[in-house]
Write a structure and sequence with these properties.
Keywords: Lipid metabolism, NAD, Oxidoreductase. The protein has 18 helices and 18 strands. By secondary structure, the chain is α/β, with parallel strands linked by helices. The longest helix is centred in the first third of the chain and has 27 residues. It binds 2-acetamido-2-deoxy-beta-D-glucopyranose (3 copies). One 2-acetamido-2-deoxy-beta-D-glucopyranose (NAG) binds next to α5 and α6.
């Protein structure tokens, strides 16, 4: 109430600049955050009507600027319109629609059981945290920026968006065009690289969602710990893909190749390496070659459907990985275009760099294992991955893989299609992250689940039984009430 009083006084003083602070301020970030906090504290983002208006504006941003966004994605990653549509634009539009359709229901208090004292009402209220920071990566620079944003806005927060400086063209659209659609008293885009982000993280936020590497995830969580700010960390890892002997190699090759080479392999949930027997490897290789040729032609470099590596640093890192094991398919690269051919490596040693780091490029090593048990041991010896895939015509094999391992997400005989279902959350476990989002899970992630009990203002006679001096009789009464879990007298 004090805050809104201040806001009112300010509105009554048209000469006062909107974000003039009471004291002199040097830090432009602090200014922005102060402005958002004031809007939040004044209750601006709480009404459902305001949230819906912001979501509709976000939907308009996507529709009005479709071509601009596709061009930006093509410039950053040579992303084809098809891949932009299905993995970035349509996905974001769907999230906006879903949130708009369900906003009322999601916002509703969730009643909890109360018995005996039916006069009490117990419920869980989903209330906004306040000021949310979303730090997004460059590989799906729209999807991984706007999908969390939908959840944060729907939940009634003020939001600071930090898009990746590496996907420059998309960053520009997000910084220059998106703010024209959203309410600027509650929303800001801040720019910069690692240094600026580090400075940003020194400030206090009420929630942080970060998508990126486990290395930077540690930096974010350390900074958040100083303020006890809760975090969702969407990290990566090496996603195993087990291929059973009992399978049709061409079917498996098609599916694995599409998901591996989609966005030139720069996908956190892509299959990172194949685990299979030497016999299955022999059957898979020609099938993978055939899939790659069918998808991208004899010269994949001239295919409009294959992406490029985001920058020189990533390109050099990936080119070095081509020296691991033996190239069975592909292996070509062209620095001037940051092109790396869809590649399959065999005879790879566990100790080589390609099996030590997340590949994040169009390179697929095959590691030999003799059995399902050996594959499971191999997986369980490593950090928990963000995703795990198992291909087999035997559902028993798929289920064993599911039962005996752990990962953020699991795909049986399919790639990361689960990401298109808003009914399923996306999130890691262990080294691949914590927390989850998508659809209603996003709303819940960005809401504090507040425990509420509203009791009767009267009935004091009934409640007096709990006060000292305690007697044997009142102790018995209370014990009975507690044991039967039927009372909220206490
Ligand atoms: C959204 O981005 C993630 C980034 O890892 C990507 O894997 C996913 O494919 C995208 N969504 C869809 C539906 O493709
Ligand atoms: C399973 O077997 C059927 C029949 O042979 C085949 O058509 C299908 O592609 C196989 N699926 C996989 C994932 O191997
Ligand atoms: C009272 O609450 C407990 C715990 O929630 C529940 O198990 C029990 O069925 C309830 N009793 C009645 C009469 O509703």
């Amino acid at each position: 109430a004090r805050q809104s009083g201040r806001a009112r006084r300010r509105a009554a003083c048209p000469g006062c600049p909107a974000h003039a602070a009471p004291s002199r301020r040097m830090d432009p970030i602090e200014d922005t955050l102060q402005r958002l906090r004031e809007a939040f504290n004044a209750g601006r983002t709480r009404p459902a009507t305001f949230r819906a208006a912001q979501l509709r504006a976000l939907g308009r941003f996507l529709q009005d600027n479709k071509q601009l966004l596709q061009d930006a994605l093509a410039q950053d990653l040579h992303k084809s319109a098809f891949e932009s549509d299905i993995s970035e634009l349509i996905l974001c539009e769907n999230e906006v629609d879903l949130a708009l359709r369900n906003l009322q229901a999601w916002m509703q208090d969730k009643p909890a059981a109360t018995n005996l004292t039916k006069l009490d009402s117990a419920f869980i209220r989903k209330e906004p945290f306040g000021l949310v920071l979303i730090i997004a990566p460059w590989n799906y620079p729209l999807n991984l920026t706007l999908v969390p944003l939908v959840g944060a806005l729907a939940a009634g927060n003020c939001v600071v968006l930090k898009p990746s400086e590496i996907s420059k063209a998309t960053e520009k659209v997000l910084a220059e065009v998106l703010p024209q659609y959203l309410d600027q008293s509650c929303f800001a885009v801040l720019l910069g690289g690692p240094q600026e982000t580090e400075q940003l993280l020194e400030h206090k936020f009420d929630y942080i969602l970060f998508t990126g590497s486990p290395r930077v995830g540690r930096i974010v969580m350390t900074a958040a710990a100083k303020h006890l700010t809760p975090v969702t960390l969407e990290l990566g890892g090496k996603n195993p893909c087990y291929v059973d002997d009992n399978c049709d190699p061409q079917t498996v090759a098609n599916r694995v190749a599409w998901f591996r080479y989609f966005n030139a392999g720069q996908t956190c949930v892509a299959p990172d390496y194949i685990l299979c027997s030497p016999e299955t490897q022999e059957r898979l290789l020609p099938a993978l070659q055939s899939a790659i040729t069918r998808f991208y032609g004899d010269d994949p470099q001239s295919s409009p459907d294959l992406g490029r590596i985001i920058n020189q640093k990533q390109f050099q890192r990936l080119r070095a990985l081509l020296g691991c094991g033996r190239v069975a398919i592909g292996g070509q690269s062209d620095e001037s275009q940051r092109y790396i051919a869809p590649t399959v490596l065999v005879d790879v040693q566990e100790t080589e760099p390609v099996m030590q780091e997340e590949i994040f490029g169009p390179i697929l090593p095959i590691v030999s294992v003799r059995s399902l048990d050996e594959a499971i041991d191999f997986i369980n010896r490593r950090e928990k991955p963000l995703a795990l895939y198992a291909f087999s015509n035997s559902s028993q094999v798929v289920n064993q893989m599911l039962d005996r391992t752990s990962s953020g997400n699991f795909g049986g005989n399919e790639g990361f299609i689960y990401m298109t279902l808003p009914s399923l959350p996306l999130g890691g476990v262990g080294n691949s992250g914590m927390g989850r989002y998508h659809g209603k899970f996003s709303f819940d992630t960005f809401s504090h689940h507040r425990t509420c009990l509203l009791s009767h203002a009267g009935l004091e006679k009934l409640k007096e039984i709990r006060y000292p001096p305690y007697t044997a009789w009142t102790q018995q009464m209370i014990s009975w009430a507690l044991a039967s879990q039927s009372c909220t007298l206490l």
